[in-house]
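If your schedule permits, I should be very grateful for your opinion on a structural question. Please examine both parts with care and let me know of anything in them that strikes you as inconsistent. The record follows directly beneath this note:
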Amino acid sequence: MYDEKSKYIGRLLFLLDSLLTLIALIMAFWISHYLFAAKHPHLIRYLPVYIILWAPLGYFLLHFGAYTGLRIVSLPSFAWQVIKALSISLGILLIILFLLDIDFVSRSFLITFTIIEFTVLVGVRLALHWWYFLRFAQKGENYHKVIIIGTGERATRLAETLRERLEWGIHIVGYLDVDSDRTGQILKDAPVLGTVDKISDILTEQVIDEVIMAVPRSMISDVEGIVLSCEEEGVKFSWMADMFDLRVSRMRLFEIGDIPILTFEPVAQSEVKLMIKRIIDLFLVLLALPLLAPIMLVIIIAIKLDSPGPAFFVQQRVGLRKRLFPLLKFRSMYVDAEERIKDIEHLNEADGPIFKIKNDPRVTRVGRFIRKTSLDELPQLLNVVRGHMSLVGPRPMSIRDVNLFDKGIQRKRFSVRPGITCIWQVSGRSDLPFEKWLELDLKYIDNWSLSLDFQILLKTIPAVLKGSGAT
C-alpha cells in the first residue's frame, strides 16, 4: 500500500547492514592481525565465517523488527536488537566452529569484530536518523498527501495510524463527508473540505497522492464515481478493508485470472518461516533418531516382555485443518484399553473433553514408566518426518475429545500443525485444567515465532527430566 516506501527502506537497510558486516569483518581481520599480532590464514578463508555470521544475524535483526523503518524503530530499540541478534549469532558461530573443529578464528578477532560490528551498525543508523529527521523529513519533502472519505471513528483511527506509522511522513489534506453540515469543521488537525460529490473539483485543484475511503460502501451511493474521478486525475484510491468489523490475523488481496479475491486468515504465519520450521524439524529429528534408536529398541523389547500385544499404539488423531492422521506411540496400556474406557469414563479426573486418570488401571508396568518419562512419545518423531506433526505445536487430539469441544474457538488449534511439545508441556502438562491448556495453545498460535519454538524446546528438556505433570 502507501507504506511501500517503508518496506523499500527496510530492504535498503538490510543490504546496507550486510555490507557493513562485511566491512566490520575485514577491519577485525586486519586489526587483530597487525595490532594483536594474531596469526591468521588468508582473508579469503574468512568468507565462510562471514556467511555463518550474517545468516543468523540478518535473520534475527529482521525478526526483532530492525528493518521496520527509520521512523518506527528508535535508536535505543535498534541498539538492543543488535545486541540480542549479535549475541545469538556469535553463539551459533562458536558452536559451528567447535563442531567442525575450526581453530583459525581467534578470540582477538571475535572480540574485535563484535566491538566494530556494534559500533558500525548503530553509528550508521544514528547518522541516518539524523539525516532523515533533521535534513529531510522535517522539511516536508516527499510527504504523502491524502484525502480521507469519512469523518467517523474509522476515519479518525486511520488518520492517527497514518501519522504514526508512515515512513516518509503524512499530510492529511482534509476529509470529505456525505453530510454538508460538517464542511469547514476541523478533525484531527485537518479540515472537512466538503461533500463527496465535490471530489473531482478538489482533485483537480489540489496536489493529492491518495484518496482513502474510510466508510462502509452502504453509506455512499456513487463509489464508482469516486473511483473514476481518482482514475482520471491519476490519484491512487484505497478502501479500508475492515468493512466487516472482523478481527483477523491477516488479510491478503490476490487475483485469480482477472478476479480480485480478498482473503481473511485467522492465523498470520509467514510461508518462509513455516518452511524454515519444517527444515529445522527434519534436521533435528534426523540428527536425533540414530542416537535414540538403541533406547527405542530397548523400550520395544520391554513392552513385549511386560504384556502381550504390539509394541506400538496407533490412533487416529485430528491434525492440521482437521485432517486425520495415524499418531504413533509406544503402547503403554493393555491391548483392550480402548474398549475399557466406557467402563471407567466416570472416573475421569480432567475438566473438559480430555480423559485423564492419575492411576489408570489400563496402564502396564512398563507403560507407567515410559509415560512418566515421556518416552512413549518417541515414535512421534516419525510423524514429524512424515509431515503429520511438528516438534512444537498444540497436541493433536483424538476424535472423541474433539467431538466434545463446546466452544468454536477451541477449533482454532486446527489452523496450525500439531506438535510433540508446546507451552502446556513446560507449564504443568497434565496437571493443567483443560481451559488453561487451551488458553496456552491459543497463546502459542497467536504469538508463534521460530524463537518461541526454540524457547519451548529448551524448556521441554528439564520438564521431561523432572517428570512433573506426566501421567
Notes: The CA atoms of residues 352 and 434 lie 5 Å apart. The chain has three domains: 4-137, 141-245, 271-466. The chain has 14 helices and 13 strands. The radius of gyration is 29 Å.
